[in-house]
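We emphasize that the prediction below concerns an isolated chain of 247 residues; any contacts that depend on oligomerization or on bound cofactors are therefore not represented. The input was used exactly as deposited, without trimming of termini.
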Amino acid sequence: MKTILITGCSSGFGLETAEYFLDRDWTVVATMRTPREDVLPASKNVRVLALDVTDPDSIRQAVEAAGPLDALVNNAGFGAAAPFEVTPMSTIREVFETNSFGTMAVTQAVLPQFRGRKAGVVVNVTSSVTLRAIPLIAAYTASKAAVNAFTESMALELQPFGVRAHLVLPGRAPETRFAGNGSSRMQGLDHEAYADLVKGFMAGFSEPGPITHPRDVAKAVWRAVTDPSSPVRIPAGADAVAWAGAS
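Result of the prediction step, given as a C-alpha cell string:
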C-alpha cells in the first residue's frame, strides 16, 4: 500500500484530496496546524499529524513521524486580498512564508528519501491566477508564481533520480474557505481609493460561471501522482482549464 502526505488537510482542497486517495486504498498522512481526527473517516489507513509549514521543527517532526512516503502534496496556504498599496509588508512576508517558503521547506525535507529510493512524486498546489492577472491579490499571485518557477526547475533536477514534480493549478473555488482565510489580516486597511475595485472583486466570488470544485483538484492531484506521462502543469477546474488554454 502506498503512502501520501498532504499538507493543509483541515478543509477544502487538502481534505478532499485526502478523502480521494483514502477511497483508492492509499495510506494518507493528513497534516494540519491543529490536528483534528474528526475531519476524515475513521480508518486504519489515516494518520493525522500536526504540521506548521512555517516551523522547521514541526516539519522535521512530521516527516519523521510519517515514515516512508510515495508522494507529497504541498497544499497548505492562504490568500490575502487587498490593494497592494495598503497591504502591510508583514502580511506579504507571511504570505510568502506559508505559500512559498513553506512549500519549499517541506519539499526539501522529503526529497532525500525520494532521491535515495529513486522514486517519488511531489505535487505543489498553486493557482490559475498565475496564468491570468487579477487585481487585489498581487502578493498572493507572486507567492504562487514563485512556487511554479521553483517546481518547474526542480522537476528537471529530479529527473535523473526517477522523481517527478508537478503543479496543480485550481481556479475560482467559492466552495472552499479561501476567501475568508486571509480576511482577518486585511481588517482595518484603508481601501477607500480602491472601493469600487474591492466591491467588484468580492462579488466575483459568487457570480455565475465556471468554477473549480474541490473534487476537481483531488482528481488533478491523483493524475499527477499516478500518471507518469502527465504534464508538469495540470489545471484543475473548468475555469482553470479555460485560462490555461488561453494563456
